[in-house]
């Protein structure tokens, strides 16, 4: 079974590698720049899909998904994926409204989401779909609820797994509840604010783009659970409850800093918990390698100008990856970003001493982590370095996380730790769009 799953993942990764593709064409010298006052699509929220193998297959029911956009909107479009499905999936009806509380929607805010002018859409296996523009005003950080009626029994659902937020669903065979305002009949998942393996955290919905001034850019954060916002793993695939639905990941708190500073950026979080830069995950929920998904999940985000990469700790901890192998991987990612005209900032790997996760987290992987960080701090290939390690380590024991920042498992972070990481990002190094 493991070989079958791994072969399936490798095949997916092979097709995804094409997304790095050739560089985009730079306008000729003297060509007129677009006006900064004109509008373009901007990624305001993203949830990178990782797999479908360990999802709960839907059965003629409705999902209700939280979205906390990191940019305001008056017109938005919604992205859905069947990237890892085993066959086509049909959405019978999709709606969006402002969250009132839990699964309840504020009356008067419900809007239909259509695809090519129709409510029903079938997404082929391996494909993504983008909705028609929806006219609906919402503020930055105002939580929305996107409801998706899944028709029939399409098989496992493409998902962003192990997310730090609740998703609701109706009972199997309950049909279309996308227009339900009260939230009655919706059951919260993960149950009891844990994140077990089987219930998918964010099924199908992968992104929200807003129509924004061309002078606004998106900062894409690429990485693993440390970027996704996990506080601590109590047991494998079971998370500490404290960070769930609090939206305190470092990308969320970076967006808070950006908003407070009045800067023209949104943030799109392209992290997948458990993800590795170099290797496809043996456990499918951890997703294809960062290298294989970098184009699709990071470079292709609408309006993206800057990428922040913090990845490699799982390569060391799970596969004993060497310093040289990680350097080669970083070099490929940096090159791909530059070919697309984007700025890329490289983050140092954070401490892991004291963690009990096998096989090579902690002391066995520490020499490699230090060697990788030495290279990151000294290299000149990227456009800048964010010293996350220095921001969160204990000065008295540099191989350990400062106790106030430790999420509890000595690998992930508390809300205060993620705030320290966000504070380490130099806002002056975020690239503004080029327009006149």
From TrEMBL:
InterPro entries xrefs: GDSL_Rv0518-like, SGNH_hydro, SGNH_hydro_sf
Top-level division of the source organism's lineage: Bacteria
UniProt keyword Signal present: yes
Signal peptide (residue range): 1-18
Keyword DNA-binding: no
Assigned keywords, A-Z: Signal
Domain SGNH hydrolase-type esterase: 222-420
Name of the molecule in the record: GDSL-type esterase/lipase family protein
Species name: Nocardioides jiangxiensis
